[in-house]
Amino acid sequence: MQKTLRLFLAVLFVLGSPLLAIGEGMTSLDVARLKMVGGADLSPDGRYIAYVVSEPRDPSDEDFKNGTAKSVLHLYDVASGKDRVFIGDDDKMRGVHWTPDSKYLTFLSKRGEDKETSLYRIPVDGGEAQQVLSYEAGISSYSLSPDGKRVAFTATPKVDKDKKKAQDKGFNQEVFEEEWRNGQVFVTRLEASTKDLKPLSVDGHVSEVHWSPKAGDDRLLIVKAKDPSVDADLMYKRVFIIGTNGQQLAAIANEGKLGDLVWSPDGSQVAVSAGVDINDPDHSDLFVADSKTGAMKDLIKGVKGRADAFAWKDSANLLVAMSYGADSKLMNLSTDGKLTETKFGPGLNFLAVDYAAGKLLTVADSPKHPRELFLNGKRLTDSNPWLKNRQLAEQKVVTYKARDGLEIEGMLISPMGTSGPAPTILVVHGGPESHYDNGWLTYYSMPGQVAAAQGYAVFYPNYRGSTGRGVAYAKSSQGDPAGKEFDDLIDAIDYLIAQGISDKSKIGVTGGSYGGYATAWCSTRYSDRFAAGVMFVGISDKVSKVGTTDIPDEEYLVHARKRPWDAFDFFAERSPIRYVEQAKTPLLIMHGKEDPRVHPTQSMELFRFLKVLGQTPVRLVLYPGEGHGNRKAAARYDYSLRMMRWFDTYLKGAGGDKPPV
Q1: Taking the complete model, does pTM exceed 0.90, yes or no?
Q2: Would you say 326 and 462 are in contact if contact means Cβ atoms under 8 Å apart?
Q3: What are the tens digits of pLDDT across the range 300-336?
Q4: Ramachandran region of residue 351, left (φ > 0), alpha (ψ -120 to 50) or beta?
């Protein structure tokens, strides 16, 4: 069963806005209050559902304190339909799993007097959580044995005591990328002392461990890379099967990026989402591997879609959430490669799947609601009942042809309360190996329904290089940064103008990361087409970006396909700073001050060039403590407020001077 879902805790915070009357559109405060279901897990006996709700810190509270969204654990009784908050006050809780007998939930946390993250267990029929395992360096991940009596866990060694003493005296210099500590894997009994516990003899950095679910089977599925760097995590994670003594039994030789992996119920196979080769920008294909030999078979080879989430139905069939472009379908996939659509969930965008005791559990969103919980296709949760009192603008899938004839998809949210060509915001996704589904598209950095309620048209294009349409489409932008991929954005604008949707003099663009790169490109190279830009953690100089990022190999292998020293002129030609002299687009630049992926100097360079030239309004906002995207409430609130005010000034207002600081 799929046990986890990576959460995108996209929460907006705007202080002091009044609640809307029934029938009016959404505001930023509404978005700030949105709760969203994250991970969900059926108990093995199918009686209960454990699920997590992301609850934002409400900026209208008098005692508002800055921080990330709270994760609240709920327990849903399938038979009675009763739902209760199971753990509501543990901000450090993660890694929630069922014990094999369905009597307990286990989780990692740092509670009370804990110095490091420990393993806890809590009975489903009531009682307090009890610590069942601790380790001096803290537990990173874990997996229980089929009988629930033993545990395999990963941990990173503590800093050497002598080194720690030296650091405390001020000898705390960092030797860049030479002092990594690899994650190790351990096996022990629950509630045992780990004082003298030794790790298994496994080379490399171990980041995941999964015990075989078959009774009496002492094999472990581990994920390891050469080191704990982000580059290695993205590009070089590989899968191995070992014994509890550390002996390697099989290697599952995925060639490219690695996604989720799950044992089959009988332990004979492993389902793995992975890239088809080292140059595949995504882990979109779904493989099954023989657990004895490691031999892999691609079950969706050549399918023009993406496996987003999956769970074993039985040892011969999987249930898979598939993206086909912007469309999401729940499919049955047999281990011989037969793919058939199930009857569940038309109109939903599936984000997580679980299956147990004949019951199908999904987490899904739609254009009308954020992530909610569904059992056998029936909606169980209504996390934001007040949404019924909000009018949502129409959202639909639009297709248009690029200048070379390629068909491109995108989602259009129509403006409310207006007629005729409208001011338009183009929202460009990052990656570029990601895509927009026809689901919920309103978050702190994505204006969506908030902008539509103010009379904007909002368009989300899945330009070439996006996922969801097969490997060939995802690779189609490689080696051509800011080439045809960003021409697709201009072609989108031309289409919207020709259809009478957009006012050609009032086009704005925004996006983060690679979408920030697109924003910088559109605001310089194509400045004559855009009246405003809001750039987030974006790229401006392709040469210095490679020299300052923590993912240089990923950049080379799945994006540029060449190194800067192979083509300095080419990298310069595809850098927005090359075109600053023609920039006339008012540009708001925002960046996390501690971003390791796209270094904040990328934003500083572009800001400095534009400010010195003095041809157009430009502003740079840095967020201390934030990285590649904002996580805390105040930074998200500030971002969304500044973004909409910038667009209001230059797409709807008189323009001219920058809005107040």
Answers
A1: yes
A2: yes
A3: 999 999 999 999 999 999 999 999 999 999 999 999 9
A4: alpha
